[in-house]
Amino acid sequence: MKDFLKFTLASIIGCLVVLLVLFFMTAGIIASLSKEKTVQVASQSILEIKLNYPVSDRTPMAPVPFFSGDLIMPVGLNDILKNIEKAEKDTRISGIFLNISMLQAGMATTTEIRNALEKFKKSGKFIYAYSERYTQKAYYLASVADKIFLNPMGSLEFKGLNAQVMFYKNLLEKVEVEVQIIRPEGNKYKSAVEPFFLDQMSPASREQTEKYITAIWGSMLEEISLARQLTTDELNKMADELTGLDAERALQANLVDELYYIDQVYDALDEATGKTPDGKITSILLAKYRKTTIADKKPYTADKIAVIYASGNIVDGKADETTVGSADFIKAIRKARMDDQIKAVVLRVNSPGGSVVASDVILREMRLLKNAKPVIASYGDVAASGGYYISCFADTIVAMPNSITGSIGIFGLFPNMKGLLNNKTGITTDQVSTNTNSGFPDVFNPLNDFEMHELQRNVTDGYHNFTALVAEGRGMQQEEVDRIGQGRVWAGKDAITLGLVDVFGGLNEAIRIAALAANLENYKIRELPDLKDPFEQVMDMISGNPSEELLQNVLGMHYSWFSILKNIETLEGIQARMPYEIIIH
């Protein structure tokens, strides 16, 4: 009885604690929402852009106020572009200050932001950039500025591109795990499986990787060359000699304009706005500026263009905010199809692919959507394999020259952990079956010849279906798709000449094309799928499922390695996904 009372009392206290936490969390949310005010912008203000957080395609829902603390409030690409355009028209904004160093954005995303800044400059307003240490990607973005400032003791990373692949072969051999691989004959470029049985790139994989990173580097050099009045040969020489590592050498090479401390930068910004330097500037951060408004003279309209975001790995069923779950995603597509106020749709793809079944389920809904209204695909940093699969029937495919696309191919991975179980742990298994293949697939035994044959047939048929769909969607011959397919990855710069992409441009260009296709001059943007509200975030925290934004804030630049390990867990069944996790730096 004593123990019973003790445990009962402990349970009651535990429930009371949970209720109190929920009460204060809810109160914090309500208080935060009720206190939110429209941000005021002073005249002669400077829009300060930092981008020291992972830049996703879409601004996430604000984290729960009770837990937000000092967390960085990230702004997605959609709002970055929208607010640079707003600042261009805003008479209160005199210029933009790029206060950047560790830019955490993909190559195509960075280029979209850079293009928006190029357009901003045409308004006659200035852009100044400063950093104590520019990473290469940050410098590429900063090169759009009228003036580039570097801390006198700082450095500038300018060295060329490097694509790194992680291989697991030796680790698997040590733990006696055999990965049984099934891929179509001739898919020599579908190298997603290589890390499981090789310890370095195959010649085909090296060939395709060199091709697309050379194309991406070439695009970067062209834009930096134009902005800094340097030839591409001069820039390549500086990259080879690591000229930017020394601030004085970077200045002499014209990679930067001045070696300034931050107070000197503030003085230069004041002078640019016509104010007397006083050691401080009137600035507004991008996260706050997005809450401001300027007069909109457009008449009211109910017409909308939907932007549906397909960001992350494509998986079966439900998913979180960093993956494309077929069950949730097709609901968003149906919502766009059934809504009469939505006149056109932009499918924004930033995905390396994933499950073949999930991709096919999504494509079915996309084809139904296309029969109802115009569909434009917009490619971000990567739209490959399953990412290309779900979008190949779009009326127009828009990509950046450095978007990674293609990778038309599929594969299957089936682990055999018998050696690990028997030899490393001493565990054995036994079984009773009603039929010959009742235990298929069995991770504790190798595939037999019949099972391997059936899986090979399944994968071969799947690849044939993939190329047939792309041929139908793109108006090409299947043989032609197979020739440029076979799992090969292409940069957008090459994909456009192959017919995989139609035009160059970013998200705004895709929206413009969608508006033309629907004969719209005035419209609103409807973003799908709907994001989780703060109360849903609370429930996720209680269930022990923290948001990806929280993990990204905690892990920072190391999040990509966590993401790689997390994505390996989704490699179930037949996959249509990128050859490997690409980290370009």
Write a structural description:
By secondary structure, the protein is of the alpha/beta class. The protein has two domains: 45-163 and 229-289, Alpha-Beta Complex (2-enoyl-CoA Hydratase, Chain A, domain 1); 304-427 and 439-584, 2-enoyl-CoA Hydratase, Chain A, domain 1 (Alpha-Beta Complex), CATH 3.90.226. It has 22 helices and 22 strands. The strands form five sheets. Strands 9, 12, 14, 15, 16, 18, 19 and 20 form an eight-stranded mixed sheet that branches.
Strand content bin: 15-25%
Give the count of structural domains: 2
Examine the secondary-structure arrangement and name the CATH architecture of the largest domain.
Answer: Alpha-Beta Complex
Biggest pleated-sheet summary: 8 strands, mixed
Brief summary:
The chain contains 22 helices and 22 strands.
Main attributes of the structure:
2-enoyl-CoA Hydratase, Chain A, domain 1, 22 helices
Task: Summarize the topology.
Blueprint lengths: L1 H34 L9 E5 L15 H4 L8 H13 L3 E7 L7 H15 L4 E9 L1 H7 L4 E10 L6 E2 L4 H6 L3 E5 L20 H26 L3 H10 L5 H6 L5 E2 L2 H12 L9 E3 H4 L14 E8 L1 E3 L7 E3 H13 L3 E10 L1 E3 H17 L2 E10 L1 H4 L6 E4 L4 E3 L4 E6 L1 H7 L24 H26 L3 H7 L4 E3 H7 L4 E2 L2 H11 L6 E5 L5 H9 L5 H8 L3 H10 L5 E4 L5 E2 L1
Parallel strand pairs: 1-2, 1-8, 2-3, 3-4, 4-7, 9-12, 9-20, 10-11, 12-14, 14-15, 14-16, 15-19
Antiparallel strand pairs: 5-22, 6-17, 13-21, 16-18, 17-21
